Amino acid sequence: LPRVATVTTASRSKHTLPALPYDYNALAPVISGDIMTIHHQKHHQTYVNNLNATEEKLAQAVQDSDVSKIISLQPALKFNGGGHINHSIFWEVLSPNGGGLPTGDLMVAIKETFGSFDEMKTELTAASVGVQGSGWGWLGFNPDSGRLKIVTCANQDPLFPTTGLVPLFGIDVWEHAYYLQYKNVRPDYVKAIFDVANWEEVGNRLAAARLQV
């Protein structure tokens, strides 16, 4: 399942912003240093801050047995919690040494489901470009069938709680992920992101997901 950063306090665990596994400008020219800095330090940090604040309110509502308040906090919990989960995965599945072709069991699984890597790439690209408004395109693992599947999620809806698929590789198609560099041409951004795809990490995620079945 997704790994997210937390820090334990005396009362509860608070979520923290995970460090990038590379420098902010390391993914250039595919993703500029300016975009990465703003995306990580501003957008992801905001999800973390709001998630912690929402969880504090939730804990108080649970303590007060305030069912109406508990219910009213669910959208903020889903949005900010999803934003934290999604971005924590996103940083890990990109790499300055990425691109190329998957190998090993990941490539076998891709061929079994899609026929070829190129077909998977075509389907994931089309799905990601076609997201209406803001959201994510995902390559996920279905624990029930043991096969891969491409789906999209709106806004910051997290893949596993939303669909039951384990996230392997995600493409953030919110405008904040690309607009400073690619303007409104989302297809160019989605096409380019495969040049920094960390297939080794995606393969590790597939292996971990299979161990959970």
From TrEMBL:
Residues that hold Mn(2+) according to the record: H39, H87, D172, H176
Domain of life assignment: Eukaryota
Signal peptide: none
Keywords (A to Z) from UniProt: Manganese, Metal-binding, Mitochondrion, Oxidoreductase
Cellular component terms (Gene Ontology): mitochondrion
A Gene Ontology molecular function term of the record: manganese ion binding
All copies of domain Manganese/iron superoxide dismutase C-terminal, residue ranges: 102-205
Domain Manganese/iron superoxide dismutase N-terminal: 14-95
This protein's record includes keyword Mitochondrion: yes
Catalyses which reaction(s): 2 superoxide + 2 H(+) = H2O2 + O2
Cofactor: Mn(2+)
UniProt-listed Enzyme Commission number(s): 1.15.1.1
EC class name: oxidoreductase
Subcellular location(s) of the protein: Mitochondrion
Subunit structure: Homotetramer.
PANTHER family, A to Z: SUPEROXIDE DISMUTASE 2, SUPEROXIDE DISMUTASE [MN], MITOCHONDRIAL
Family that this chain belongs to: Belongs to the iron/manganese superoxide dismutase family.
General function of this protein: Destroys radicals which are normally produced within the cells and which are toxic to biological systems. Destroys superoxide anion radicals which are normally produced within the cells and which are toxic to biological systems.
Name of the protein: Superoxide dismutase
Species this protein is from: Mactra chinensis
